[in-house]
Amino acid sequence: MANYYAMTRQELEEEYQKEYAHFNACKEQNLNLNMARGKPSNDQLDLVINMLRTLNDAQACVSDDIDVRNYGELEGMPCARAYWADMLDCKPSQTFVGGVSSLNLMFDVISRAYTHGLLHSPKPWCKEDKIKFLCPSPGYDRHFRITEFFGIEMITVAMTDEGPNMDQVEEYVQDPCVKGIWCVPKYSNPDGIVYSETTIQRFANLKPAAPDFAIMWDNAYCVHEFRGEYKPFPDIIRLCEQAGNPDMVYEFASTSKITFPGSGICVLACSEENIAYFSKLFSVQMISNDKVNQLRHVLYLKDKEHTLKIMQKHAKILRPKFKVVSESLHRMIQPCGFGRWNEPKGGYFVSLYTMPGTAKRALALCKEAGVTMTPAGATYPYGIDPDDSNIRIAPSLPPVEELEKAMDVFCTCLKIAAIEKLLK
Ligand SMILES: Cc1ncc(COP(=O)(O)O)c(C=O)c1O
Asked: 97 and 202 share a domain?
């Protein structure tokens, strides 16, 4: 296999015939493989199944003199607030524990900002002429869908190896219409980038023109190393407080990739003033969250130290899958001279940049051959990747043997799309 850019037209055509024959052979196998979403595998779900055994009598349902089976404790069970404070290195009083998933809480924060405004909003966002949000990209498609849902204009900010391009961020926040930014500070989705200390400090010290500027700090992968040691991470709430911006940050996390996605517990962590403000707004919507699940989680996960031990077991299952992705790309794509990708140490994704102008075509071919991927463009605001190049690979769900097959099909499709582009 040689570098595609160095091949003659005839060599490219021959390579095309060869790869297309392989593609057709794969198609005939009627595959049904999925590398689309960051779902834990069955092995991972089985790993934590004993959590369901923790609450099996009435006595066990009482913690801190609170019976979790009844109404109350809107902000969350004291033990669950203490758990998240330990996980995120903040204070229990700075946490609001929710149920199901953190995306709910993110949606709720933006939706309250829209209807009622945030703590320092001069007026609800729906009454503003124009609202804009900064979207470091590639990023998480569901963040972008929330801001798009509320008609908020999204501005793409470039990602660097240290996190979002902070020169751009600092410049954009001079505009009072810019009301916030989406951030995944640790093992960003999809690039797997960990924000540097400098980036984090620059965030805490932002001086936005909008008094209600919101840093949506989605720390979804706060304990999710699958290679190497756990990397401690600064408490953004304290840093913002020290910088004179105590109410600017809203941090989110959940147990979705620790226990059961969609049936876990989640947290909004922010200043005590923000907790009080949001508790009042949320009290219209609910009397309390699912405290049974909160207690179940705390009894099983215990604290950060014990959670990290469980994460090592997840890591053992995830590591070989990320290895398959890396080895497949090195073997099948690297010699062709196009494409680059990250080698993350945590999180759930590999972010691949294929030959510009070919991502959509490659994924259409994948679909034809029975391999489902996150749609091309999904990692950018409005689903438009200006380079048509970024593809998010989510290797966690399929067993290793299926993943090997899926990567073989995927790389073949990348090559076919690249050759078609070169032949044009
Ligand atoms: C960055 C990020 N945030 C949030 C989520 C979803 O979290 P939850 O299940 O808590 O809504 C994901 C899932 O892929 C994610 O990648």
From this structure: yes
